[in-house]
Amino acid sequence: MFDQPQDFQAESDALYALLSSASDADFDQPTQFKGWTIGHVIGHLHMWNHAADLSLAGGDGFKAFMADVFVEFQNSNLRTFEERWLDGLAGRALLEEWQGLYTGVAERFSQADPKARVAWAGPDMSVRSSITARLMETWAHGQEIYDHMGVTRVDHDRIKNIAVLGINTFGWTFKNRKRDVPEVMPQVRLTAPSGAVWVWNDEVTSDVIAGSATEFCQVVTQTRNIADTGLAVTGDVAAEWMAIAQCFAGAPEDPPAPGTRFRVR
Q: Is residue 214 predicted with pLDDT exceeding 80?
């Protein structure tokens, strides 16, 4: 047994509870994230939870799914593919389908060997990394829904999974932009939701990032610009990293411009 499947379930449950009283029409409301609606967000999470489930099961199902993704992506875009895959599933019906699937995914991952390898769109990854990625994406995309609904999310220490992803993708963030990877990674000192203090690289003093674990996770998932947080950033390497940090796979993405992602009041 390992914690990440339960953490994924808990984060998904929190988002489900937030939307429990939403009407069908509410799912058509656009968020601050690229104009995606709430329905687009839940549909995106639902489809990629399905993909992770296929990868865990093994066999040809995941390969066939990704072949369809690549064909559609070459012809149009991923948003179009997701809409085709959902086949009209929307609103509260989509919410319930998503909830049913993520519950099953959490259960199936909890029964798997966390060190086993599973296929993905890029390199293979461990079972633990796969379900952690689902947790990260649920938390990150959930942010635009919390923001749109004017709700301050109550985080828990399970976001340490996301902070660790942020730490582990330090070098990759630079490589992904074809920049030289700094020789020394900054010290990161974060205050967890529980009040605990998490520290990485405490021997480094020239470059330091310190502050809220939630805000660090927001920066590395690009749901906030570093300028819109209270993180204390010292040193050139730390400043450069926080300006481009990206803990999710894919081509380089720029963080939102300052002041463009916020909780609606």
A: yes
Going from N- to C-terminal start, the domains of the chain cover: 4-153, 160-244
Classify domain 160-244 by CATH architecture.
2-Layer Sandwich (3.30)
Is residue 38 a contact partner of residue 19, using CB atoms and an 8 Å limit?
Answer: yes
User: Cα separation of 226 and 244, whole Å?
Assistant: 9
Task: Please tell me the distance from the alpha carbon of residue 170 to that of residue 181, in angstroms, as a whole number.
Answer: 8
Supply 229's token pair: 């947080």
**pLDDT tens digits, residue range 186-196?**
999 999 999 99
DSSP string of 184-242? SPPEEEEE-TTS-EEEE-TT--SSEEEEEHHHHHHHHTTSS-GGGS--EEESHHHHHHH
Average pLDDT, the chain: 96
pLDDT of residue 145: 98
Task: Provide mean pLDDT across the span 240-247.
Answer: 98
Q: pLDDT-based confidence at 76, cuts 50/70/90?
A: low
- Tracing tokens 């993909």 back to the chain, one arrives at 51
Q: How many CB atoms lie within 10 A of CB 185?
A: 17
For residues 71 and 218, which has the higher predicted lDDT (pLDDT)?
218
User: Are 137 and 45 spatial neighbours (Cβ–Cβ below 8 Å)?
Assistant: yes
Instruction: Give the CA distances from residue 198 to residues 24, 113, 150, 190, 251, in Å, rounded to whole numbers and listed in that order.
Output: 41, 27, 29, 5, 29
Q: Does domain 4-153 have CATH number 1.20.120.450?
A: yes
On whether the CB atoms of residues 199 and 187 are closer than 8 A, the answer is yes
Q: Which residue has the tokens 């990440």?
A: 4
